[in-house]
Design brief:
Dihydrofolate reductase family protein, Riboflavin_Biosynth_HTPR, single chain, Dihydrofolate Reductase, subunit A, 5-amino-6-(5-phosphoribosylamino)uracil reductase activity, alpha/beta, 8-stranded mixed beta sheet, DHFR-like_dom_sf
Amino acid sequence: MKLTTVTNVSVDGVTQGHRRIDAGPRHETDAPDEDGSGTFERFGWAPPLLDDAASTFISQTFQRADAFLFGRRTYEIFAGSWGAGMDPGNPVGEALNTRPKYVASTTLTDPRWADTTVLSGDVAGAIGELRAKPGGELQVWGSGTLIRWLLDRRLVDEIVLLTYPVVVGQGTRLFPATGPDLGLDLVDLLSTPKGLTIQTYRTTGRPQYEAATA
């Protein structure tokens, strides 16, 4: 299976606080890894820009997954909403409730969401085994800390970015100031009426750099 990450991100790269997870029913994109504590105050920058085209893309992407991989916090958010029977019949919930789920965690010992496997110990090795299996897609939603960990170990095959036309100006960003370098091939590009761009990239290893000239 190819490992695909799917992330809501602002133009300046912020992933934090794209929704207020404590306000109203949770939506299928409520998967922030960071809870916005401390000085962050600009919650909810994504919903005013989410349109039907983006929502359709999100639903279709969930439905094509063969399995899901989460960090603990994102897993608990999903388990507390979709896993608790929110919005019965929704295709997102159907995918999440009927397909295998894996959680990278050293502290979660008793997952109560059916068909969940906790990955601890040699997490990189376990994820490598999942990637080696035949099939379609192992998807990572939200889980920013996990995504950065996966990128550090070059375990990501595809990166999907839902880029919202807003500069948040503060908050945790998907890509840190210092991290691994990564070459990308653009394999799909969509835009929506409210100005989201949805880019799908295939990772290609380390990028090429211009050679120094005399």
